[in-house]
Amino acid sequence: MRTFEEDMKLAVAYHGHLCSGQCIGVKMAHYAMSLLGLDNESEETKMKVFVECDRCPADSIGIATGCRIGRRSYSFYDYGIIAASFLDMNTGKAVRIYHKKRIHPEDGEDMIAFYKNLPFEELLSYRNVKIELKPCDLAGPPVEDINCEQCGENVIDSRHVVKNGKKLCRTCAEGGYYSFL
Ligand SMILES: [Zn+2]
Ligand SMILES: [Zn+2]
Fold this sequence. Notes:
181 residues; alpha+beta; CATH 3.30.1330.130; Wheat Germ Agglutinin (Isolectin 2), domain 1; 9 strands; binds zinc ion
């Protein structure tokens, strides 16, 4: 298992700066792995994370767990909550960890040492949760492949919507984050 300092070094290099969010994300990942009995240096460890914010901890959670969005081992939910669930893909056990309260080092205090020595329970809470993955959520070849009946774009992995009997991409069905000029 990599140490807190080792994962912080990797997280800061990836994220681009040292911040409390990097520390909190690594702390969340290490808490989850200790609860699930997993090791981020073991080949046996197969995890999937479900991250509920797009702030700083979102990067360090990925680094400390090795979970990546392009490998389908990292799902992002735009809930605005500093929380994440960690699923052990071998056993099906999962924990959801959330940031309980803001605790900051004193001015001038070493941030990494502060968070390293902070007991998990003071910063974080967890609940055991159940997460059921569908075949369309797993790595491997796409399980479904359709073309949107409105715009014609290809939609994979059952992410389309059926509306008025038509198979549509989400943007055509529900409106998207962009509009055409
Ligand atoms: Zn940051
Ligand atoms: Zn469409």
